[in-house]
Amino acid sequence: LNEFLLLAFADTRELQLLHFSLFLGIYLAALLGNGLIITAVACDHRLHTPMYFFLLNLSLLDLGTVSTTVPKSMANSLWNTRAISYSGCAAQVFLVFFLLGGEYFLLTVMAYDRFVAICRPLHYGTLMDSRACVKMAAAVWASGFLHGLLHTANTFSIPLCQGNTVDQFFCEVPQILKLSCSDSYLREVGLIVVSACLAFGCFIFIVLSYMQIFTVVLRMPSEQGRHKAFSTCIPHLAVFSLFVSTDIFAYLKPPSISSPDLDLVVAVLYVVVPPTLNPLIYSLRNKELKDALRKVSSWAFFSTGNTAFALYK
Questions:
Q1: Is the pTM higher than 0.85?
Q2: Kind of pairing between the strands at 3-5 and 83-85
Q3: Where are the alpha helices (DSSP H) in the chain?
Q4: Is 86 exposed, middle or buried (CB count within 10 Å of its CB: 0-12, 13-18, 19+)?
Q5: Contact (CB, 8 A) for 80 and 41
Q6: Residue 201, CA atoms < 13 Å, CB-side half-sphere
Q7: 3-state secondary structure of 183
Q8: Inter-residue contact 250 to 267 (CB < 8 Å)
Q9: In terms of Cα–Cα distance, which of 34, 29, 40 is closest to 290?
Q10: Helix (H, G, I), strand (E, B), or coil: what is residue 58?
């Protein structure tokens, strides 16, 4: 195979342009939200803490995820084509598994950070010093890279002879496996099951961590302390719930309920929606982050205004 044909959102030119416009708006929102968080955390010294360091890494992963899938789909709609090269498809598979796997491991690390901060506050400075945070972040990126490499090598070692049409707007492994002409696709299915078991272990760790966190928070005598603890935990729990529920449904749903429309909706939910909503979720209840974002936005506005005025003169 030299190329694959991706799923087209629409057949008429008007609907293709509508799809391009919608995805463009979503993509720009994701770029703006995650870009602001990265800039705010990097520039504001008050945010140089483990929690915001991991949040910066989450924004980087989200930017990578949405940039892997959405621009190609937009370009196909704009140029009225469905083609993606074989190497481009392999790159998409690798990056999706790399970035989503890394995000899952990072959410587990962030749960551990919240657990130590609330349940072991006296040991927080020792357990979560800068060296430990860098090591955890490096482990997250390395694990995601290995995760993507294994799935990509396994998927594209399978002989494909059922055509080249992928029923998804990006190269999704379950859809590529449908093109297999032998039982060798079971190797990738087995690898997906192993990944699911590992993800389930992370899920159990996060659930147990939050059970202890909420037990400690509810015993706090200060209402202000409870509010501050909840404001740092609830966003992480919301992001994790959205990410896990859509991923599990996408990869482990029974074939009997699978349909092209349902698969498309689920793919948008786990690849496009979380990177766009995560900055909003994290900034809604976090006063420190909102203040930093306000400063960054004001600085960007005045810098743009001064540049435009200088060019005008």
A1: yes
A2: antiparallel
A3: 13-43, 50-78, 86-119, 124-127, 130-155, 173-177, 185-218, 223-252, 260-271, 273-284, 287-312
A4: middle
A5: no
A6: 6
A7: coil
A8: yes
A9: 40
A10: helix
C-alpha to C-alpha distance for 155 and 173, rounded to whole angstroms:
7
Give the integer Cα–Cα distance in Å for 31 and 34: 6
For the chain, helix, strand, coil in percent to 5 are 80, 5, 15
- Pick from 121, 135, 126, 155: nearest CA to 53: 135
- DSSP-derived 3-state class of residue 5: strand
Task: Confirm if 53 and 136 have CB atoms less than 8 A apart.
Answer: no
Helix or strand or coil: residue 17?
helix
In the numeric block, the tokens 């729990």 are attached to: 237
pLDDT in tens, 207-232: 899 889 888 888 888 777 777 777 77
Question: 């890394």: which residue's tokens?
Answer: 102
What would the pLDDT profile of 258-299 be if each residue is shown by its tens digit?
Answer: 777 788 888 888 889 888 988 888 876 677 777 777 777 776
Output DSSP code: residue 256: G
Q: What is the 3-state secondary structure (H, E, C) of 77-112?
A: HHCCCCEEEHHHHHHHHHHHHHHHHHHHHHHHHHHH
DSSP 44: -
Angle at 296 between CA 295 and CA 298, to 5 degrees: 65
DSSP per-residue codes, 145-163 = HHHHHHHHHHHTTS-B-S-
| Amino acid code (one letter) for 93 | V
Please report where in the chains the tokens 């980087």 appear, as a residue: 60
- Which of helix, strand or coil describes residue 238? helix
Distance CA 142, CA 147 (A): 9
- Tokens read off for 117: 């901060």
Residue 11 banded pLDDT, cuts 50, 70, 90 = confident
pLDDT for 77-86, tens place per residue? 999 888 999 9
| Phi/psi of residue 80, nearest 5 degrees | 55, 55
